[in-house]
Amino acid sequence: MPTVSIVKCDDYESEKVYHAIHKSLSLLNGVDKLVKPGMKVLLKLNLLSSSQPPERAVNTHPIVVRALVRIFQKDFGCDVFIGDSSGSVKNASTFNAFRITRITDIAEETGAKIVNFDKDEYVDVHNKDYEILDKFRIARTLRTVDFIVSVPKLKTHGLTQYTGAIKNMLGSIPGNGKKNVHLIAPKPTVFAKALVDIYHMVPPHLIIMDAIVGMEGNGPNAGQPKKVGLILASQDSVALDSAASSIIGFEPMAIPTIRFAHQRGLGIGELDTINVVGETIHNVSVPDFQKPSSGAQDFAGKYLPDFLLTMMFDSTCSTFSSVNHANCTRCYECVRNCPAGAMSKENGKVIVDKKKCIGCFCCDEVCDFHAIEMKRSLLGRTLLGMAKALGVEKVE
């Protein structure tokens, strides 16, 4: 039975965060036996945005990173590395993500080593037990360190509903490789299976989730910060995602990444078989947490068989991009980031070819100006309306 620890932490005051993480690790029992002095420990962050500051709750907060560096350097005597690949494919985007989140400053102050996965050497990964991705490339450092700590941010996601520990490992793939995943897996359910393939081949040894301030609504970039006041920890990504998604009002097994990973035996997603220590889920739940507009199908998670749930998920999540030109600053980040080539410049404006658009949210993830509007299919809008009318979902 996997263990998930839940510890309250009201804000990002440095000592509070340090003690909350320290307590969360002590509640797991056994982490000190896994981590040995002299080990190379990699903190795999969630640095989606290369331009959003920490208070926007898009990226892993720097105070959480600082506390983890302190713990693994001082308490465990390890050599600490900090790595990720940003969601944008723009040149120097990951470099800018480390800078804007002040991770660069932390590295300079502590001696921790930053690893820009986009500039790292890569290794080819072959998955014999794949469902969607039989091979892909990851940053070489993920194979040379002794211990991987995933440090995801608690957020909603317009395509996958929820993004946490499992999805965080998508950032193991450098640069354009993430765009290729979207091209291979354009449908929401297929994409979720691809994410589980990646997690299968790059599982972290430990997960520490930054849930002090999460993101609600149409995350992972265009939503709004929401105080949750928690640090979660586990050695099982699936179990942690199950607990975290439940806290913000989801039915965990209705989240495809959790369900598929559980079904493949890559972790435990059923709450009643997870040992939750510290705070209880009931005591820390956030009942008014806004879900993304793709969350209309979640109310059926307890009642529909898998094949109908899958159909409903794809129907409610299927989208195409639209540009709000009044908000567009013409930075063209969306054009560069579109894996399907559906976005282009025409007389200075961004134009979307709906026939090419695969609804992958890659444009939405990198737009900092709310200029991207993801439009739903007729069926998706109908199901969303039903969910709102029935009062079973609180969605934007």
Automatic annotation (TrEMBL):
Q: Where is the signal peptide?
A: none
InterPro entries from the xrefs?
4Fe4S_Fe-S-bd, DUF362, PSI_iron-sulfur_center
The protein's superkingdom reads: Bacteria
One Pfam short name: Fer4_10
A GO MF term = 4 iron, 4 sulfur cluster binding
Which keywords are on file for this protein? 4Fe-4S, Iron, Iron-sulfur, Metal-binding
Q: Which SUPFAM superfamilies match?
A: 4Fe-4S ferredoxins (SSF54862)
Give start and end of each 4Fe-4S ferredoxin-type domain. Answer: 319-347, 348-377
Q: What is this protein called?
A: 4Fe-4S ferredoxin-type domain-containing protein
From what organism does this protein derive? Candidatus Brocadia fulgida
